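Aim 2 progress update. The chain analyzed this quarter is reproduced below.
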Amino acid sequence: MNNKEKKKPASIFVEGPVSPEFIAGAIAKHSTKTNIGAHQIFLGQIRNDIKNSREVRAIEFSAYPEMVYDVYLEIREQIFAKYALTCMHVYHSLGKINAGEINLFVFVSSEHRRDATMACMEMVELIKSKLPIWGKECYDDQNHTWKENR
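Predicted structure tokens:
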């Protein structure tokens, strides 16, 4: 990990959906980093599942930011220790995100594809299982239930 990446990353939270323009900009910023040979990207999108005859129209995300940040830094360090990465960026939405919109953007870069691919996949699983971020599914009938991560 280079010195630039050793500094603490900024907050991972984005108010509202992660826009396609934001994602494109993040990718474009890496075009000058010529030591990178692979990028792996994960985009989490809200599905309009049908549950008990009700359609999920959105998920409203909330979190305890200070706790999320502490846990995120811990799992980020684990990933950097396990894989030869150049950089890693994570952005998670807060607020109401409609079906079809992006709520999670994980962007991992390395010299070689295997490290980028494996690190991205593992990071997504750790985000889903470890970070105190909660989602409330909002249905077409104006009711809601708390989402369980799988």
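Residues 12 and 91 are 5 Å apart (CA to CA). Residues 1-6 have pLDDT under 50 and may be disordered. These observations will guide the mutagenesis experiments scheduled for the next reporting period.
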